């Protein structure tokens, strides 16, 4: 905040709020840890408005919503790559779509089997099986920490989560669709997601008429988010309540543009600005005298004109 003394001041008794972003290609987590970071590659230090911050931050490429679901579909295909039929446990029962090997493996996040022909047509059929869906999504992660005693997933170091978090972008939009943005326990959220995943494609079309383009993927996305938060980022029953799924912060949409703007405002000096005169005092005095003289001359001219008209 900016004080009456003309200085940026850090509000008292405040703590940095963590941030979790779920984009299309990657997901990020950033927060102020309660321990000394063991891996300096995950440490970010900066100064904002006169206060110093030391944060943990990491970005997982290919684990954004779009690419994660593409990895899931590719994994299901590789499980039986000799068949053009793919059974998808996260898609609603009765849903079907067609794609090709080239379309499925058009991303650096997935690698096509050497035996697959790019022009081969594939038929994806939903089966609506929540348990099988969850198991398939967990196969996308490596939850083993290896030499790191504390980690997120895929062997990446992460200290225990701490403090409040804002979960935005894909986190918010997916959970908002399922009415899960209000404070609920992980078990309640999981029950709601599983109930949604059991619904057939015909049921979903009859209930949701405005979002047909992404309707088939909400079960997969919600199950993925639950897995990412609980087993990837290591939230639990206690820390889950500190996650706030939100589209805005202080009535401002959250996104990379907001962060970029805040980073640029960091260039504003924390100290009070000096009052600088643009000219020498003698020049200022001359300018003021000229302005006063011009005003007096104008008033005299107006007075003379009025007297002339009255004669």
TrEMBL record:
Q: How does it sit in the membrane?
A: Multi-pass membrane protein
GO molecular function of the protein, one example? ribonucleoside triphosphate phosphatase activity
Pfam families, A to Z = GDA1_CD39
PANTHER family reported for this sequence:
ADENOSINE/GUANOSINE DIPHOSPHATASE (PTHR11782), ECTONUCLEOSIDE TRIPHOSPHATE DIPHOSPHOHYDROLASE 8 (PTHR11782:SF31)
EC number(s) on record? Answer: 3.6.1.5
- The answer to keyword Amino-acid biosynthesis applying to this record is no
Q: Where in the cell is it found?
A: Cell membrane
Which residues does ATP bind? 24-28
Keywords of this entry = ATP-binding, Calcium, Cell membrane, Disulfide bond, Glycoprotein, Hydrolase, Magnesium, Membrane, Metal-binding, Nucleotide-binding, Transmembrane, Transmembrane helix
Identify this protein by name.
Ectonucleoside triphosphate diphosphohydrolase 8
- UniProt feature coiled coil, ranges: none
Keyword Glycoprotein belongs to the record: yes
Transmembrane parts of this sequence: 283-308
Q: Which cofactors must be present for this protein to function?
A: Mg(2+); Ca(2+)
**Would you name any one GO CC term?**
plasma membrane
Which Gene3D superfamilies does the record cross-reference, listed alphabetically? 3.30.420.40, Exopolyphosphatase. Domain 2
Q: What's the catalysed reaction?
A: a ribonucleoside 5'-triphosphate + 2 H2O = a ribonucleoside 5'-phosphate + 2 phosphate + 2 H(+)
The highest taxon in the source lineage is Eukaryota
Give the family from UniProt.
Belongs to the GDA1/CD39 NTPase family.
Instruction: List the source organism.
Output: Semnornis frantzii
Give GO terms for biological process: nucleoside diphosphate catabolic process
């Amino acid at each position: 905040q900016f004080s009456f003394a003309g200085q940026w001041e850090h509000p008292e008794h405040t703590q940095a709020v963590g941030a979790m972003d779920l984009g299309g290609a990657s997901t990020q987590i950033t927060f102020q840890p309660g321990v000394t970071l063991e891996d300096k590659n995950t440490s970010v230090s900066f100064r904002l408005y006169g206060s110093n911050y030391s944060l943990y931050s990491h970005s997982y490429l290919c684990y954004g919503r779009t690419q994660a679901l593409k990895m899931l579909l590719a994994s299901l295909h590789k499980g039986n790559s000799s068949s053009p039929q793919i059974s998808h446990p996260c898609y609603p029962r009765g849903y079907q779509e067609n794609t090709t090997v080239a379309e499925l493996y058009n991303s650096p996040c997935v690698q096509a089997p050497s035996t697959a022909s790019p022009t081969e047509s594939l038929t994806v059929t939903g089966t609506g099986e929540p348990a099988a869906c969850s198991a398939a999504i967990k196969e996308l992660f490596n939850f083993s920490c290896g030499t790191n005693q504390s980690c997120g997933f895929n062997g990446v170091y992460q200290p225990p989560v701490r403090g409040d978090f804002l979960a935005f972008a894909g986190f918010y939009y997916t959970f908002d669709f399922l009415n899960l943005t209000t404070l609920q326990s992980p078990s309640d959220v999981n029950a709601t997601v599983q109930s949604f995943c059991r619904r057939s494609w015909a049921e979903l079309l009859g209930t949701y008429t405005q979002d047909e383009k992404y309707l088939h993927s909400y079960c997969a996305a919600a199950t993925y988010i639950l897995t990412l938060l609980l087993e990837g980022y290591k939230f639990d029953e206690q820390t889950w309540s500190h996650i706030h799924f939100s589209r805005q912060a202080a009535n401002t949409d959250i996104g990379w543009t907001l962060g970029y703007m805040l980073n640029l405002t960091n260039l504003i000096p924390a100290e009070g600005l000096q009052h600088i005169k643009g000219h020498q005092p003698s020049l200022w005095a001359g300018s003021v005298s000229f302005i006063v003289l011009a005003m007096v001359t104008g008033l005299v001219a107006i007075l003379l004109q009025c007297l002339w008209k009255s004669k």
